[in-house]
Automatic annotation (TrEMBL):
<protein>
    <submittedName>
        <fullName>Peptidase M20D, amidohydrolase</fullName>
        <ecNumber>3.5.1.32</ecNumber>
    </submittedName>
</protein>
<feature type="binding site">
    <location>
        <position position="355"/>
    </location>
    <ligand>
        <name>Mn(2+)</name>
    </ligand>
</feature>
<dbReference type="Pfam" id="PF07687">
    <property type="entry name" value="M20_dimer"/>
</dbReference>
<dbReference type="Pfam" id="PF01546">
    <property type="entry name" value="Peptidase_M20"/>
</dbReference>
<dbReference type="InterPro" id="IPR002933">
    <property type="entry name" value="Peptidase_M20"/>
</dbReference>
<feature type="domain" description="Peptidase M20 dimerisation">
    <location>
        <begin position="184"/>
        <end position="275"/>
    </location>
</feature>
<feature type="binding site">
    <location>
        <position position="101"/>
    </location>
    <ligand>
        <name>Mn(2+)</name>
    </ligand>
</feature>
<feature type="binding site">
    <location>
        <position position="134"/>
    </location>
    <ligand>
        <name>Mn(2+)</name>
    </ligand>
</feature>
<dbReference type="GO" id="GO:0046872">
    <property type="term" value="F:metal ion binding"/>
</dbReference>
<dbReference type="GO" id="GO:0047980">
    <property type="term" value="F:hippurate hydrolase activity"/>
</dbReference>
<feature type="binding site">
    <location>
        <position position="160"/>
    </location>
    <ligand>
        <name>Mn(2+)</name>
    </ligand>
</feature>
<keyword id="KW-0378">Hydrolase</keyword>
<dbReference type="GO" id="GO:0019877">
    <property type="term" value="P:diaminopimelate biosynthetic process"/>
</dbReference>
<dbReference type="InterPro" id="IPR011650">
    <property type="entry name" value="Peptidase_M20_dimer"/>
</dbReference>
<keyword id="KW-0464">Manganese</keyword>
<dbReference type="InterPro" id="IPR036264">
    <property type="entry name" value="Bact_exopeptidase_dim_dom"/>
</dbReference>
<dbReference type="GO" id="GO:0050118">
    <property type="term" value="F:N-acetyldiaminopimelate deacetylase activity"/>
</dbReference>
Length: 382
């Protein structure tokens, strides 16, 4: 694997260039152009403009084969002001690669170079560079625009750097690895009126107070104790004067789950409670419940294969539990069997968490990430 070591200085420079020039979701024009140029320089066929800025590189092996593999990297940055003071820190104030997607791009481009230089495999590798992972669902948009129809993949993998896991350790698990993320907004609508004449004005404030209490019983009373879920109410807006009963109060928050049945149960209980609130307080309730990212569910066989392959390139370990954060690779895993894999970023030096202004991708794990991508391809298309 010495050839990977030879590529590293170039790939580290590329990673830092992308870091210095971060772009938010669906605006990754410069990043996508750099990726397209790199892929073409490796002799890889490039298809651009899938999901706005998304692109796919297609590499066929020299041996006859019908299997196909998708390897995905996300490209977008976050709306955070970087505070690392590194020489390659963001040049765009308020925009920052705080989730290491710059590193994901560099690792997948490295794997593309290695595989293109020695395409001794049977079948096709699709290098998927997706936009807008951070909350905007770029993966879903690429799928809606025909990603898997145009570029068949009978297995998909994605690698995400993972602070807190020892540098270079590779970890994944069968089943749920990341949570589903839902957000809700509830409008409680009364009439509005004088605070001294409560009999004429349904009290949306009191209704909201009761609702907050009731919603906080869902996880403890309606979700099985062996399942995991979080419901957090994070917003209440309403009222502006001491002598006015407001006409409307808004209550909002988030729900995180790992099992679609639990997710369904929570939404169902919320809707039932709103009917009770309407009857009790004479207000009207309007619920906007948005399931924006589903849970990321690994195929058991794909996860087992990933761990087996990972053990040939680095230290591999079964992840004991899923993470409560979410990931839009979940949409790809709803379409195709595959697995989401964590690459340890380090416990010291590179321990700043994802989305923290002091975070930086650890270039020291880049070689391991490239080797894993290459080994996954050679294994599935062997
Ligand atoms: Zn992120
Ligand atoms: Zn990320």
């Amino acid at each position: 694997m010495s050839e990977i070591a030879d590529l590293l200085p170039d790939l580290v420079a590329l990673r830092r260039d992308i870091h210095q020039n971060p772009e938010l979701g669906f605006c990754e024009h410069r990043t996508a152009a750099r990726i397209a140029a790199e892929l073409r320089a490796s002799g890889i066929e490039v298809h651009e403009g899938i999901g706005t800025t998304g692109l796919v590189g297609v590499l066929k092996g020299t041996r006859e084969g019908t299997r196909s593999l998708g390897l995905r990297a996300d490209m977008d940055a976050l709306p955070i002001h970087e505070q690392t003071n590194l020489p390659w820190a963001s040049r765009t104030p308020g925009t920052f690669h705080g989730c290491g997607h710059d590193g994901h791009v560099a690792m997948l481009l490295g794997a593309a170079r290695v595989l293109a230089a020695d395409p001794d495999f049977a079948g096709t590798v699709n290098f998927i560079f997706q936009p807008a992972e951070e909350g905007q669902g770029g993966a879903r948009v690429m799928i809606e625009e025909g990603l898997f129809d145009r570029f068949p993949c009978d297995r998909v993998y994605a690698l995400h750097n993972w602070p807190g896991l020892p540098a270079g350790t590779i970890s994944t698990r069968p089943g749920a690895i990341m949570g589903a993320a839902d957000k809700f907004r509830i409008a409680l609508v009364g009439k509005g009126g004088h605070a001294a004449i409560p009999q004429d004005s349904p009290d949306a404030i009191l209704a909201a107070a009761s609702l907050v209490q009731q919603l906080n019983t869902i996880v403890s009373r309606a979700v099985p104790p062996y399942a995991a879920a979080v419901l957090s109410i994070t917003e209440i807006h309403g009222g502006h004067a001491h002598n006015v009963i407001p006409a409307e109060v808004m209550v909002g928050g988030t729900v995180r789950t790992f099992d679609p049945a639990v997710q369904d149960r929570i939404e169902e209980r919320m809707r039932a409670m709103l009917k009770g609130i309407e009857a009790s307080f004479e207000v009207e309730c309007a619920l906007d419940y948005d399931r924006y990212y589903p849970a990321t569910i690994n195929d058991p066989q794909a996860a087992a294969d990933a761990l087996e392959v990972a053990a040939t390139v680095a230290r591999a370990e079964l992840a004991p539990e899923p993470a409560p954060t979410s990931e839009d690779f979940s949409f790809m895993l709803q379409q195709r069997p595959g697995a989401y894999i964590w690459l340890g970023q380090g416990t010291q030096g590179h321990a700043a968490p994802l989305h923290n202004p002091h975070y930086d991708f650890n270039d020291g794990v880049m070689e391991t990430g490239i080797r894993l991508h290459v080994a996954l391809a050679r294994h599935w298309l062997g």
